Amino acid sequence: MKKGVVATSLVMLAITATMLTAHGGKTHDENDSTEVEAQVPSDSAQEAARLELFASINASYQTIKPILMRSCYDCHSNQTHFPWYYKIPGPKQLIDSDIKEANTHVNFSNDFPFSGHGKLGETLKAIREEIDE
Question: Are 6 and 131 in contact (CB under 8 A)?
């Protein structure tokens, strides 16, 4: 699969995720600093719709997952395949440190929505920028 197809797929995921989390049906209030993604759905029907949308996005994500597994999983998942020199003191500590930091940014282990320290939209944008780079 070409890089452009992956980037397009990630953009589609970002748009869908943004539509899901945007505003929770509420309007802006200038004094309201509540983060959109921190809002809890007000009823079980809204939560069910959210989970259904995430399941749909995750199904689409499965088409690009093999590419991420090849290119990203060694650092951004719990499924690392270590290089032959991993057991050498020095490189081992450096690799462990890099993987720990990478997983704080984004972890693909549990599929979509990805875990990490950023908001979902920000994470998808960062992935897109990394692919473009």
Answer: yes
Q: Please give the structure tokens belonging to residue 111.
A: 């599929």
C-alpha 40: how far from its chain's center? 20
94 CB-side CA count, 13 A: 7
Encode pLDDT of 71-126 as tens digits: 999 999 999 999 999 999 999 999 999 999 999 999 998 888 888 887 888 888 88
Residue type, 80: T
User: Among 29, 7, 2, which Cα is nearest to 130's?
Assistant: 7
Bridge partner list, 107: 115
What's the pLDDT score for residue 39? 52
Q: Within its chain, how far is the Cα of 42 from the centroid? A: 25
